[in-house]
Write a structure and sequence with these properties.
Length: 423
């Protein structure tokens, strides 16, 4: 695969087109620019209006465990029967989703989980320092804080099953401590007494506003001469196995290299570069509450509710859940509404009035790993999408790895687990 990097490295300073102005595209553009390339960011919507707009803002460096873990198949009937459950599947979408779902279930086998967690560990390493560098240069370092995060469990059985996953995290070098209910309430007095216990991850950081992080980095890109164009990309003009130009509904934009970072919509573009990937989406919802009536010092996560509660500059965000339903169906806003109920179960004094609601499309491969590497049939194209639950966390790190690929520098980690051709 990486023999292609020799083509990518031809010439030192080039014009690189980056499709997608989500956090992945913006971080790629900034890292490429730091290497001396001229960059053009292309998106059909205004800057960062995709999944990167409303995520839960957590730099979840403890997330070395894939979404599919042993026994998850037992949840499939519940997924189908409860449209408001933390993990749900739209019936109408089942026929289209079945191949993805089968791969997802296959990725939950213990040996697969072990392999995937090693790949995640390698990718997550350095995620926070990589951001700090980019944000410092964008005068926005204060948008990132490290106060750890708490995983709260209401049921003793959930806590017991997550202890097993915590063991895997510890084996991957993640710092994690078990907390009693009293300790949890000492750290976060707004939490209910009605808990079984929790886990604390002291090294986890969060952003005070994920969209502002993206805008600060994009502003730096533009200040350095990078362009941001509003276009709908429909394909690529190819010659001799290389991309000559990005084709949009309006025009054709010449480039020396291209990065596809189009989030949940990258599948079609990857196909046009010669590779089929089983990319789908895990839709997620949020409520952002401007005056929640409670104060949190750090994010609190509930696996049982599939929900993160993150203190942001603009209020408290209750975000998460997974709805397997594709990119076309309308949002089911009841899913956002139940976040308020679940939030009140964790924080009895929570005031959810005036909450704004949002839905976003996590770009997800069934094995919880992104596609990150050269396009196998287009010598000057790099694919960088499918970061699932970890797109914010992995933005800066991905940008750096993409810049390495374009420069032809050896990557500091083995990129084979992220190859588009692995399926
Ligand atoms: C509820 C929720 C909570 C989350 N919480 C977290 C969290 O706490 N931590 C974390 O790390 N991650 C979290 N995530 C995941 C994270 O938000 C995503 O992984 C990440 O935003 C993906 O970034 P992206 O740049 O790949 O995609 P996006 O932000 O979706 O950007 C893709 C862009 O490509 C553009 N595009 C697509 N096709 C074309 C085309 N043909 N032409 C032009 N433009 C195109 C789109 O318009 C879009 O702007 C969460 C996600 C959700 C939904």
């Amino acid at each position: 695969m990486l023999t292609q990097a020799s083509d990518l490295s031809a010439g030192s300073s080039r014009h690189v087109a980056v499709v997608g102005t989500g956090i992945i595209g913006v971080c790629c553009a900034r890292s490429l620019q730091r290497d001396g390339h001229r960059v053009t960011l292309i998106d059909r919507t205004p800057l960062g209006q995709g999944a990167s707009f409303g995520n839960s803002a957590v730099l979840a460096t403890e997330s070395v465990v894939p979404v599919a873990t042993p026994g998850i198949w037992r949840q499939v009937p519940k997924m189908l029967l409860d449209p408001l459950g933390p993990l749900s599947l739209r019936w109408q979408y089942l026929p289209q989703l079945t191949p993805w779902l089968l791969r997802f279930l296959a990725a939950s086998r213990p040996e697969a989980v072990e392999r995937i967690s090693l790949a995640l560990q390698a990718l997550l390493d350095d995620a926070v320092p990589a951001y700090r560098l980019l944000l410092k240069e964008a005068d926005a370092e204060d948008l990132l804080v490290r106060r750890g995060w708490i995983a709260a469990y209401t049921e003793p059985s959930s806590l017991r099953s997550y202890r097993r996953l915590a063991d895997l995290q510890r084996r991957r070098g993640v710092e994690v401590a078990e907390l009693s209910v009293a300790e949890m309430r000492q750290m976060e007095p707004a939490l209910t007494k009605d808990l079984a216990g929790g886990l604390y991850y002291p090294q986890v950081a969060h952003a005070l506003d994920p969209h502002r992080v993206l805008l600060a980095l994009a502003e730096r890109v533009q200040r350095e001469g990078g362009q941001v164009l509003r276009r709908d990309v429909v394909g690529f003009r190819m010659a001799e196995g290389r991309v000559q130009a990005v084709e949009t509904t309006e025009d054709s934009l010449d480039c020396d290299a291209v990065v596809v970072a189009a989030g949940a919509w990258s599948k079609e573009l990857a196909k046009r570069l010669g590779v089929k990937v089983p990319l789908d989406t895990e839709r997620g919802y949020h409520l952002t509450i401007p005056a929640p009536g409670i104060a949190l010092s750090r994010p609190v996560y509930s696996t049982e509710f599939g929900m993160a509660c993150t203190p942001l500059a603009s209020g408290l965000r209750l975000g998460g859940t997974v709805e397997l339903g594709g990119t076309v169906a309308e949002p089911n806003w009841k899913r956002a509404q139940v976040l308020a109920e679940r939030g009140r179960r964790l924080f009895p004094d929570l005031d959810t009035r005036d909450a704004s609601r949002w839905m976003g499309f996590r770009p997800s491969l069934p094995d919880s790993l992104p596609v990150l590497g050269p396009a196998p049939r287009a010598a000057n194209a790099v694919l960088a999408f499918g970061h699932g639950h970890l797109g914010l966390t992995l933005g800066a790190r991905t940008g750096r790895l993409v810049a390495d690929l374009v420069a032809g520098r050896p990557a500091p980690i083995d990129l084979a687990p992220f190859a588009a051709t692995r399926f």
